[in-house]
C-alpha cells in the first residue's frame, strides 16, 4: 500500500497550534502509547467532510477507520441549537455531512471498514431547541480509547418526528439526488457527536499530563514535560503544513 495520499483543505494553509492539531497530537500519542499498528492522516481527500482526523488501525486482523471532523467554537458556552443543524449553511449543518457520508460510503477504500463518523466539538446541545423539532440526543456509553477526552460525552441524534429526514431529503433533492430512508437511517446510526470536549488550554494540559505519566512509567522521569510536548507539536505542525499527504505511523512515535 502506498505511503502517500492526495490532499486538500487546511493542509495547504494551516499554521501554528490549533484545535485540530491538538487532537491529532492526542490521537498520535495515545496510539503510540497503546502500541497500535496504525496510520494517521489529516485533510485526506477521499474522506472529505470527515477528514480532519483519519485514523486507520488493525483490530483482530481487520482494518478499521475512524473518520473525524473537528469543530471548535470560540465561545464554548454557546450551545448547539436546531438552527445549527437544520440549515443550508454553517459548519454543523447536517445536509453537508450527510452528503459527505454518502460519498465516503461509496468509496471502495473505506467499504466495510468504518467504525463511525464523528464530530468533535467543544460545546453542548441545546436540548430544548432540538426538542422543538422532535429531536433528542441519546448518550452513547463506550470504552473508546481515543475519544474519551476530559469530560466530553458521545451522543447520537434521534429524529422522533422525521424533521431530519425531511430536511435531508429536501436538501439532497435540491442538489439533484434523491436520498432514501435507509441511507438517512444509516447516517443517523453512524454519526456520533463528541460534545463538551475540552477547550484549547484544557486539551493541551491533558496531553502534557499523559506525556508526564508515560515518561514516569517508562523512564521514572518526573521532570518538565514541555520539551516532549513542544517536540511533538513541532513535528505535528511540520507534518500538517506539508502539501504532500504522508501517513504518520508508529515509527514516528518512537522518534518523538
Explain what you see.
With 256 residues, the chain is α+β, with helices and mostly antiparallel strands. The chain has one domain. The protein is built from nine helices and nine strands. It has a seven-stranded mixed beta sheet. Strands 1-9 form a two-stranded antiparallel ribbon. Strand 3 (53-59) and strand 4 (62-71) form a beta hairpin. The longest helix has 20 residues, at 200-219. It starts with a strand and ends with a helix. Residues 12-17 have low confidence and may be disordered.
Could you spell the SSE succession in H and E letters?
A: EHEEEHHEHEEHHEHHEH
Structural class: alpha+beta
Strand content: 15-25%
**Main pleated-sheet profile:** 7 strands, mixed
Distance linking N and C termini: 24 Å
- Uncertain runs are 12-17
Gyration radius, rounded: 19 Å
Record field, number of beta strands: 9
Number of spatially distinct domains: 1
**Overall pLDDT:** 88
* General shape: globular
Adjacency order of strands in the biggest sheet: 2-3-4-5-8-7-6
| Count of separate DSSP helical elements | 9
Amino acid at each position: 500500500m502506498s505511503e502517500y495520499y492526495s490532499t486538500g483543505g487546511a493542509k495547504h494553509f494551516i499554521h501554528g497550534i490549533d484545535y485540530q492539531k491538538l487532537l491529532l497530537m492526542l490521537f498520535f500519542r495515545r496510539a503510540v502509547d497503546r502500541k497500535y499498528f496504525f496510520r494517521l492522516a489529516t485533510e485526506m481527500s477521499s474522506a472529505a467532510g470527515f477528514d480532519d482526523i483519519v485514523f486507520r488501525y488493525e483490530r483482530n486482523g481487520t482494518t478499521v477507520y475512524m473518520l473525524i471532523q473537528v469543530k471548535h467554537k470560540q465561545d464554548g458556552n454557546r450551545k448547539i441549537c436546531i438552527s445549527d443543524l437544520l440549515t443550508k449553511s454553517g459548519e454543523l449543518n447536517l445536509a453537508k455531512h450527510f452528503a459527505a457520508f454518502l460519498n465516503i460510503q461509496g468509496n471502495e477504500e473505506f467499504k466495510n471498514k468504518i467504525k463511525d463518523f464523528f464530530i468533535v466539538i467543544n460545546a453542548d446541545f441545546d436540548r430544548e431547541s432540538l426538542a422543538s423539532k422532535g429531536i433528542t440526543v441519546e448518550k452513547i456509553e463506550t470504552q473508546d480509547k481515543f475519544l474519551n477526552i476530559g469530560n466530553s460525552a458521545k451522543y447520537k441524534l434521534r429524529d422522533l418526528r422525521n424533521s431530519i429526514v425531511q430536511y435531508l431529503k429536501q436538501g439532497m433533492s435540491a442538489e439533484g439526488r434523491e436520498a432514501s430512508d435507509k441511507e438517512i437511517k444509516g447516517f443517523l446510526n453512524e454519526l456520533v457527536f463528541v460534545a463538551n470536549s475540552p477547550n484549547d488550554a484544557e486539551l493541551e494540559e491533558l496531553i502534557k499530563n499523559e506525556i508526564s505519566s508515560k515518561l514516569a512509567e517508562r523512564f521514572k522521569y518526573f521532570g518538565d514535560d514541555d520539551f516532549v510536548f513542544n517536540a511533538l507539536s513541532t513535528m505535528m505542525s511540520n507534518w500538517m503544513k506539508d502539501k504532500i499527504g504522508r501517513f504518520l505511523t508508529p515509527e514516528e512515535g518512537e522518534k518523538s
